Amino acid sequence: MQSNRLQKFFDRYAGIPIGIFLFFINIIRNFLNRKVKSPNRGLGSRSETDFPTDLPKKILFIQLSALGDTILAIPTVRTIHQSFPQAELSFLASATNLSYLERCPYIDRRIPFRYPLYQLIRMLRQEHFDWVIDLEHWSRFSVILAYATRAPRLIGFSAVNQYRHYLFTDTVPHIPGKHEVLNFLSIAHELGCSTEDSTLAVWVGEAEHEWCQNLLAQEQIDPSAPLVVLHPEAGRRGEPRRRWPRERYVTLADTLTSRYNAQIVLTGAPDEVAVSQWIAERTACETVCLAGQTQVNQLTALFAQADLVISGNCGPMHLAAAAGTPVIALHGPTNSAQWGPWTDKATCLKATLPCSPCLNLGFEYACQALPDGTSPCMHTIAVSEVLQACEVYLG
To answer: Residue 124: helix, strand or coil by DSSP?
Structure first.
């Protein structure tokens, strides 16, 4: 979850005890309520009046984490939208995620996550949501936020050793090794929705398409030559252990240019500019460095124009897959079966160390980073392997 230090500290050290405390408070309150309503009912029994039987009128999704998770949750959001057309769907998320969802037809309201929290919680309570669906899979913070809405039905994941499911009324197991698209769809299945359509989606407007065309013309990109986008950073600010060594991106760019006459564009978030610039300054070929210069939907428009995107496991990797662009994904700590591009136009290259992959939820690295910040397993992916994969799409 991309958040400030206070939120991370709260989630790690206070989230579990607060969640358990609220769980027991909830048990006591429910027991007292049931005792007043029906003295003969046991604590574990549940009547038809415990939850509203009417169809939901207002549903809130919570997704505070990285962009990739939001992209992979779209099939779930879509099928819930189609299954409950009478409901107003709201989405609480970070600014980056809401930018991606700006034109999403399945969302009626976009609510930015912001501080101070008491104002946000007060606003959420005033909305009187019927259902809150927590799309996070390890955060305790999002569970407490969902509980604070006072919605009668709370749906979310139960993940191994995360102690986050106690406050949910409906719990769905998060399965390690199962692709996240399918993990998310298990929530839809729990709610009785169809899970047949698992396609991803992007929504790019004319302004972004025009921006992209102007950019390519300004940079004198030849439309007859292959356009390859390299996204060297791999998500999670300040955590480069998913990144392929940057020296290899230099070699890759030069080889693609000489072998295929490829035109190389480097991208990255505003806080990832240094890595892309470092690579651009050391290539023998000419490159275009756009790191820190693109909004989410502008990046989507660029990916849609590219012949190939090469990246580690991160949100832009999933964005490229959703745009329908061929992707070569480099996986070391991450499990490609769970986090790989959800498309048939992708090649996943995996590390060869026996401890790889080590991540299920995204933070439980099994090794210390090397001096350059990368993981040892990422160094087992050779440039020659990547070039061989490129042959499929550029040869």
So the answer is: helix
Question: Are 250 and 319 a contacting pair, CB within 8 Å?
Answer: no
- CB 94, CB 136: distance < 8 Å: no
| 272 closest CA partner among 230, 318, 237 | 237
Averaged pLDDT for residues 321-341: 97
Whose structure tokens read 């030849």? 222
Among residues 222, 288, 285, the alpha carbon closest in space to that of 251 is found at 285
Q: With pLDDT > 90 as the criterion, what percentage of the chain qualifies? A: 74
Query: In the sheet where 153-158 sits, what is the strand order?
Result: 109-112, 88-93, 58-63, 131-134, 153-158, 170-173
Identity of the amino acid at 395 = G
Contacts with 137 (C-beta within 8 Å, 6 or more apart), sequence order: 69, 157, 159, 162, 174, 183, 361
pLDDT category of residue 234 using cuts at 50, 70 and 90: confident
Q: What is the pLDDT of residue 39?
A: 43
Q: Residue 31 half-sphere exposure, CB side, CA atoms within 13 Å?
A: 8
CA–CA separation, 30 and 273 (whole Å): 52
Per-residue pLDDT reduced to its tens digit, 1-15: 344 555 666 666 666
Separation CA 351–CA 251 (nearest Å): 19
CA distance 185 to 286: 43
pLDDT in tens, 342-381: 999 999 999 999 999 998 888 788 888 899 889 999 999 9
Q: Do 164 and 143 contact (CB within 8 A), yes or no?
A: yes
DSSP letters, 175-216, are: -TTS-HHHHHHHHHHHTT-------------HHHHHHHHHHH
The Cα 328–Cα 343 span in angstroms is 11
* CA–CA dist 15, 230 (Å, integer): 37
Region 305-314: what's the mean pLDDT? Answer: 97
